[in-house]
Every structure is written in C-alpha cells, then in structure tokens.
Write the structure tokens for this entry.
Amino acid sequence: MAVSRGPDVLTVVHAKHCGHFKGLAVSNHKGLRSRPGPVGVDVRGVLQVLAAILSGMLLLLISPPIGIPWLHWFSFVPMFWALREEQHGKNFTLAYVTGFFGVGSCFFWLTESIIRFSNLGVGIAYLCLALFALAFALPYAVVYTLTHPLRQKYGAWWVVLIPALLVAVEFIGPALFPYYQGVSQYRSPWAFQPVSYTHLRAHET
C-alpha cells in the first residue's frame, strides 16, 4: 500500500492487485468529503436526501388529525443539516424534496376525496396528489435555497429571515388550499394566544 500526502487531502491507493479499490479521499480540515459505499454509493448524498424527506414527512405528524405541535419547532432541522454551503444547486433540489413530501403529507386527504367523490380511481387520485405537491413544493425550494446566502450575508439573522420569507411567500403566493405553518400551534395556548394581538403571520415568523 502506498500513501501520498497533499496539502489538505490524504490519498490512500491500494496495489494493482486490489483493483476493486481505486482510492479514498479524506479532507484533513473539513471532515469527510465523500464516503462511497460498497458499490460506489454516495452515502452522504443518500443521507441528505433522507433528511430532506424526513423533514417533509414530519408535517404529517404535525398537522391534524395527529397534531404534535412541539415537533414543528424541530421538523426542519434535518433539512437544514442536509443543505450545504458549497452545493447551491443541490440545495434547491433538497429543499424541493422537503416541500414535495411536506405538501404530499399535509394534503394526503385529497386522494380520499377524489376516490370517494369521483370515479377517477386510485391511480389518478395519487397522480393528482403528486402533481399538486410538485406545484406547491416550489415555495419551499425557493425560500430554503436562500439559507446559506442569507447566513453568509446576515449571520445569525438568517434564523429570522428564512421564516419571514416563507410567511411572505405564503401570503402573496397562489394556493388552492392555503397551509400556514403557524396553524400547527393552535392546540398550544401559550404559543397561539398572541395571535389575537399579532395576527397568525406574525406568529409564524
């Protein structure tokens, strides 16, 4: 085994008879850059996608009829973990994935309505839900892609600016069935009572 050191990367190259291993690159100061699996799978990339899906799917538990309001305060943490400063294009995709699964989870009742009150069938019902989620996941993608640019420019204030932008998009954007993030707290008097003075959108922010 031969080992060579670069300025910031340690490269380990196996002998030719171990041709099924072509090398492993590890950053010395930024942690693991790439951790390929046994068949060349980008483990970090898979975990990022799963984190984005998890953040979206948690809206199913947050929204009625289940309604776990405290979970909403942490639900987007997995997605924020997945977003990386150096991958602006991929961040848009990850945020879009979160929005798609979030909208699909919140509005799963659309499939039941279509199946029960029409003769379109199960397949068409789920196709309608998928198209609906594809359309209304866009605000999530647009807003959350700005996480790192806002963090770079305004520092810790991004924690306030991102929710404010999402509320603004909820207010001005078209919506067949509006969903406001703040409504998840309607079962928490300590959190929802100020709405009578500040309006729901101020509470969301």
User: Anything to note?
Assistant: The chain has eleven helices and three strands. Residues 1-32, 200-205 have pLDDT under 50 and may be disordered. The two ends are 56 Å apart (CA to CA).
